Amino acid sequence: MAVTQANPQLNFEIKPSAFSKQSQFLNYIDGQWVPAKSGKTFESRNPAEPSDLVGVFPACGPEDVNAAVAAAKKAYERWRLYPAPKRGEILFKAGQILVERKEQLAREMTREMGKVLAEARGDVQEVIDMTFYAAGEGRRMFGQTVPSELQNKFAMSVRVPLGVVGLITPWNFPMAIPSWKLMPALICGNTCVLKPASDTPLLSHRLVEILEEAGLPKGVVNVVYGSGREVGEPLMAHKDVSLISFTGSTDIGRRVNEACAPTFKRVSLEMGGKNAIIIMDDANLDLAVDGVLWGAFGTSGQRCTAASRVIVHQAVHAQVRDKLKKRIGELKLGYGLNPEVKVGPVVNEAAMKKILEYIEIGKSEGAELIAGGARDTQAGSGWFVQPTLFDNVKSTMRIAQEEIFGPVTALIPVGSFAEAIEVANGIAFGLSTAIYTKNVNQAFTALRDLDSGLCYVNAPTIGAEVHLPFGGTKDTGNGHRDAGTTALDVFSEWKSLYVDYSDKLQRAQIDD
User: Fold this and answer.
1) Which of 60, 188, 304, 455 is labelled catalytic?
2) What residues make up the domain containing 372?
3) Which of 49, 126, 230, 270 is an active site residue?
4) CA 171 to CA 300: how far, in whole Å?
5) pLDDT tens digit sequence for 478-489
6) Does the annotation mark 233 as catalytic?
7) What does DSSP say about strands 153-161 and 492-500: parallel, antiparallel, or unpaired?
């Protein structure tokens, strides 16, 4: 492993035994670990220290996608008949294994993706929660029984699986988001082809290993690695794939939707956000500042729910600004395995350059740079961006409208509650919003009027729980939701069943 035991830049000890010595990884197709048919590979590297090679993975192409889909299609005929409670038992066993390996998985996540260890543990815990939750749905998945309008006739509805589903997941939650899709898909009786992000393939590999160990039959889950062009697009176009579930940017999501349209493939999209925290003049300011720091700079701002706008009442604007400036200056950047570090690197060099470009855009638009604003070279050799705060931002500026996906947030002063709601809603996205206030009337009005899929009162814009729907409005999604029982609606369809035991012809809606 390239990381040394006593790295002076990182200033803390890393034990070589903390990580697996395996460096070569394979696709998982039809229950077998196999290389890409082309023999091509790509590397995954530690964003905190790019000289640290995490692993080498297959760079797949259409032929690998075809093999994975064929395996999933073959496995579907048996898996759909596997009783749902028995599917749940496999997922429950996987959940138990995840509990046992939580710390190992979290440390590998910090190394590969960059988020600090506490957040990586939270990512793995979300996988555990989703796996146990989906396992329980194996004994639920309720349909409806209703009275028939005719005598001696029984009427009910049940869920049925879709078939082979394609899952395309991002790098920022490298285990949690695959679990949001895999676990509901599996419990409903579908078989899956997973294409994880190329920046974080290791954690999807680990998740599939655990499912295999828990007893998942071969072919039910398949994973292929590689680029969107070489793997994602063939998966979207494949005639035997019934649904694509995608999480990523709005621009790519639009292309996914267009690519799936010719085959009438179902599409579930969870895309971008430009989320706002509203701080009213009666708010607990220290609590609000805690929320902004966590919402804006957790995961280095690389969350679709990150608080990249802070809409603050002008009566408390100066206090909030000064408190934030002080607290931001106390945040320690570095490798997330260091327990003192609060902000890790961004995922790669291209992401860092994009964030720095947006910081320059903010300055050119006339926003006032209060804190940060540059690459941090003191934190290490990786892709570190200083937590950045702009003040006196106008709601029409690009840094207040466009998703930056980095540790950058903007203070937008407003004069009233009504203006705060208007500014919060005045964007193309609608994922998550939050308000800090002690006024119960304002709180409930905000919950009603904020145009977003997630709303929080006296809490930041991040922190969704797996048993409620996750997703947004406007350009954030296409109406579907991850998590909760609503995820079952994505991965199943309704079948209405009628049993007539009258022993005569009965005609619904026909006058007798």
Assistant:
1) 304
2) 275-457
3) 270
4) 13
5) 989 999 899 999
6) no
7) antiparallel
